[in-house]
Amino acid sequence: ADGPIFPPPYRPWRTSPPGHLKSFGHQRPPDGPVRPYIDRFLHPVDFWENHVKNKLPLVYRNAISRSPAIKLWTDEYLFKKYGNLDVLVERKVENRSYSPRRMVLKGFLNQYKKEDIYVVSVLPDAMRPEVQTNLWIGSGGTSSIVHFDADHNFHCLVHGRKDFMMIHHRYYKYLYFKQNDPGSGSGYSKINVNKIDMKKYPLLSRVPWTYATLRAGDCIFIPGGYIHQVRSYNRSISVTTLFSPTSFFNSSGCEDLDMGYLPMSEAPIHWTYKEGDRTIDLGYKNVEVIRNNLIEPFLEKPNRRVYLKNFLRFSTGLSDSWQIDEREVFQKYLNINGKGYYTKEDIVNLPIENLKGIGRAMEDPAGPLEPAPKIEWEELLRESLAREEEERRKGGIGADEDERENEDEDELFNDDDNEEIGDDGEDNENQERTQHSHQEL
Known about the structure:
Blueprint: E1 32-33, E2 36-38, H1 44-52, E3 58-61, H2 69-72, H3 75-82, E4 86-91, E5 101-104, H4 105-111, E6 117-121, E7 134-138, E8 147-148, E9 152-159, E10 161-167, E11 187-188, E12 210-215, E13 219-222, E14 227-232, E15 236-243, H5 287-295, E16 306-307, H6 308-318, H7 326-334, E17 341-342, H8 344-348, H9 352-362, H10 377-393, H11 399-414, H12 419-440
Parallel strand pairs: 1-12, 2-3
Antiparallel strand pairs: 3-13, 4-5, 4-6, 6-7, 7-15, 8-11, 9-13, 9-15, 10-12, 10-14, 16-17
Helix pairs in contact: 5-9, 6-7, 7-9
């Protein structure tokens, strides 16, 4: 009832080659499900040893079932409590060349069942006591491209259903990625996941995959670099928590760990958003990765001093798309106490806000900088309905015409031969009305 059969049935006799012009997943059967853990969490040391270190995904069933958002986050609740907060909005069918737009949440909630849009945004600070970090909201029909990301990711479902297809990075070369460097932070495939041309991309048949279906309360761990594709079908809300891959794990403090529920408002989150912020900081580098990048020049000479001329030499290795002049970055964020240079100790102790400033300077913002207009949607809807009523009253839609329409509908629904035609006509009429209302809004 909540979507199609998943994983899709493998029927190689229906197309040649198998899965040709079908959606991704029909080209070969899965190897099995992603390993689940039901109603329990791994200890951090076990999680590191068995999954994070070797980059193996897992599914936690009922992981966030105690989160208040599971029961609270209806559209009405979100509209009333958080409607004035800004979010970033993208198209349902993922397109990496499309720039997100910025909307107030109540505007999105009024439109997302009519437009092909969904929210992919930093979770506003005001919402964090009820759940986790990055926020995704859609009405269904969303489909990601085949891709991988740099960071480890816990993706948790608050409402609805999502299906995941998971592929080990060792099969990168069979997936026709646009990203030329397989060691880069992220990349995506050029295949059309909704209609795969197996004659053009025959190597896809060599790619084994596993699967997972998430429902409300479930979480999946997607290791950094692990290739995946995601689909949803009806209204869904999910949240993600990202953390950087490292080659080591410090288990100090894990001995007497309380494994109880902890709201994300009590966790140290680097990239956040609160109402009134100029930017919604989605997609920027982990600030500790930036710190490590700045420490690299000290590996050979730990006691050196880095002056402006030194910084300018290696700043091109930090970013090839600086948003502001590197001289300004040095003076604003790195010239500690006006000394004219910085040391390794300065970088180790550099405040988080300085690192975030450098991160914003290194790459384009994820969405528009200007806040979304604060549209009074309820008033706008009332005015629109009042105009329609006034047009009806003045004779825009007469009573006789309404009567004739009703008679026509009765005839159509009483005539079995015309039933299908009548349904189509009614759908077209509804679509025209919806389009008209949308244009007014």
